[in-house]
Amino acid sequence: MKRPDPYRLLFPIGLTYGILGAGLWPLHALGVLEYPGIAHRRLMIQGFEQCFVLGFLLTAMPGITKGPPCHPLELAVAVGTAVSFGIAVAWGAWQVSAVAFAASMGLLMVALARRLGPSRAPRPMELLFVGFGLVMGMLGSARQMVGGGIDGVADAWISLGMVLSLVLGLGSLLVPTFTGMKSPLTIPGIAAPHESGRRALLYAVLIAALASAFAFEELGRPRTGAFIRAGTATVMIILVWKLIRPPGHRDAPAFAMWSSGWFIVLGLWIVALAPPLRLGGLHVVFIGGFALLTLGIGTRVLVAHGGYPPAEERTVLSPLLVATVLLTLAARLIAEAMPSRVGLWLAISGGLWVFGWLAWAFRAMPRLAGSPKART
Q1: What is the distance between the alpha carbons of residues 251 and 319, in angstroms, rounded to a whole number?
Q2: What pLDDT, in 10s, does the model give residues 75-106?
Q3: Distance (Å, rounded) from C-alpha 176 to C-alpha 245?
Q4: For residue 365, how far is the Cα from the chain centroid?
Q5: How far, in Å, CA of 266 to CA of 269, rounded?
């Protein structure tokens, strides 16, 4: 019997968490729920984003590392920890949810380590960012467990440590290629596609800078840390993602991935330059950056790995869906600007998110459930 592709099981779980996490705000506006801030944060980053990370890495890691495909036990642990996390959040068991998340991080660390043995084929240096991101995710979850499950610093280690590192590293591999840029894996003036020495040096310096940002924040200098993080991301996205070039493909999937990098840069600089606007700046990163990138790469995975023709990407991810995500972000920023109407605008933003991702699910789920080959 053919092994199920990891993304076919994990993407729907992540999709469910994303819809539930955003859907909490309309329910709060209707008086059904008390303020759901903690559950919202957990479901969106450690539920929604983590499940897409699990689905992507367990599907693509064999190709990236030149190692074996996902083992059934790895997939079982991934699904089990993802489901356990959601149950814990539903019960408000924050420490238990941190344990489940830590288990999923441990799985990824072991899965990566067992595929990094001797290999004749070169492995991408961008895996350095993956390794750093996984360490930050594990440290963040450990801090959540020690802190009773509720710790804002731990949340930042996961969102701005783990997720941002994975985005910067894997985005360097995927965004220039998927958007159709010329010489996608070249770092202009630094490294050719398979030139590892100077590429590794650049990445080591940038990862050290990311680590120092958290060190400065721990020392009571959060603005210094924010400037370092914004500068590091800018170097990666301008120099390695090469976003000063327009995408080669002129369609919604390419625009979603290309623009996600600019939103990450914009949001991080808002946080650094205007600390009172920090929460708004972070949502520029999370919604305009992480979510758009998740849409673009998630669409590519289910189309390419499902055996569909590339043109299917434009069917699954339409300009209307990209516009809906942008409207979600706009409504969330209006909520920051209008504190007297914050509940209303959070509800509108959450409702737009739910609508957009349900629309994506309507087109994605048939392709997640089967493949063209299975129907012939």
Answers
A1: 8
A2: 999 999 999 999 999 999 999 999 999 999 99
A3: 9
A4: 20
A5: 5
